[in-house]
Amino acid sequence: MSRLKKLYEKDGYIVLKNIIPSEILIHLTS
Questions:
Q1: Measured CA distances, 14 to 22, 23, 27, 29 (Å)
Q2: Given this model, what pLDDT does residue 1 score?
Q3: Which pLDDT score is estimated for 2?
Q4: What is the per-residue pLDDT across 1-30, written as a single tens digit (0 to 9) for each?
Q5: Prediction pTM value
Q6: Extents of the domains making up the chain
Q7: pLDDT score recorded for residue 21
Q8: DSSP-based three-state secondary structure for 6
Q9: Residue 2 has what DSSP assignment?
Q10: Alpha helices, DSSP H only, in 1-30?
Q11: CB atoms near residue 11 (< 10 Å)
Q12: Cα separation of 8 and 12, whole Å?
């Protein structure tokens, strides 16, 4: 359970790290 939560947090961080810059780029280019 702890390992699963840690994996989820790691994946969630990667997803946020990928989504946030793309959102910023969308706002800058539009």
A1: 13, 14, 21, 23
A2: 65
A3: 84
A4: 688 788 778 887 888 788 888 888 888 887
A5: 0.38
A6: 1-30
A7: 83
A8: helix
A9: H
A10: 2-29
A11: 10
A12: 6
